[in-house]
Specification:
Blueprint lengths: L2 H42 L9 H14 L6 H19 L3 E5 L5 H10 L4 E5 L2 H10 L4 E8 L3 E2 L1 H9 L3 E9 L3 E4 L10 E5 H6 L1 H7 L4 E5 L2 H11 L3 E5 L1 H6 L3 E4 L9 E8 L9 E10 L4 H11 L4 E7 L4 E9 L5 H13 L2 E9 L4
Parallel strand pairs: 1-2, 1-3, 7-8, 7-9
Antiparallel strand pairs: 3-4, 3-11, 5-11, 6-9, 6-10, 12-14, 12-15, 13-14
Helix pairs in contact: 1-3, 2-3, 11-12
Amino acid sequence: MSEQEKELRILRDQIDSIDGQLHELLNNRARCAQRVAEVKQKYQGDVSPVFYRPEREAQVLRAVMERNEGPLADKEVARLFREIMSVCLALEEPMRVAFLGPEGTFTQLAAMKHFGHSARNLPMQSLKDVFREVQSGAAHYGVVPIENSTEGVVSHTLDLFKQFDLKICGEVEVPVHLHLLLNRGDSLDGIKKIYSHQQSLAQSRCWLDVRYPDIEKIAVSSNAEAARLAANEGKGAAAIAGDMAADLYDLESAVKNIEDQIDNSTRFLIIGDQYVGPSGDDKTSILISVPDTPGALYQLLEPFHRYGVSLTRVETRSASKNSLFYIDFIGHSADPVVQNALQALIETSIELKVLGSYPSAVL
């Protein structure tokens, strides 16, 4: 045996030993999670226990990154713990998560990023179906898009918050990388049509105008649907979509990252019916209706300035005789300064609806 083989054998034996310790610790954690479920059921009686605590999960993931000493990157370690928590939570109660389908969309990717691979994903045909599924109790949570860094806010999501009595329980941001997908064996020169969602076509407009100005671009309901159509049609049909859609329909990523903005990303909201406690780094979202009079915007913004609350988004929605605003800001509704600002807004508004306070995105 060579000296190299001797050194490698020692290292591999060490890895085997560490793997054994990890395995034992993982099972110990899983048993502890089962015990947590038993305690909740014991003391909460007929009330359905709340197994998933977004604020607790955010605190755990932040602690993971804070204590990490490398060589693994902070977020890579946090993703590993995300999956460990997902598996352990499934032992307490399998999570049902509704999302805007079909399978292979960026919304499903957001659901998997936030809840891990052990949650059961339920594809819905529309955003309204996602809200309805959660409100009926058929799904524990839903994942809906709220804004894209290039295309702006998703107005339909805002409108649905007015129709349904649900709360925002979390947020997740997903980088949007778009690829030109071909059937295996096809060439870039043989493309006759390109399928994609209208938003993805817009996000890659410059790239398409330079390389395929005369090729037919067909807008469909989702990038996953685009990939399905391209796969079914075969030779000459292409799609613009992400990695999940490519894997799902066995397409080849002929050209990667064709989006015009390299930092393109979409923010998604987690909707549910539970109150989420403070995590130490939170956001709050509200819908507020104020009289459509001169100075209305100033009166709306002044309490935030007075109490030192930082805004992250202000979006105006049309209303008949009033002005309707969707506002995100830093802080939790349980914070005294936030309570003071909200009370001042209540006194000057027609209606104020707190959509939820929730942990800022960790991953």
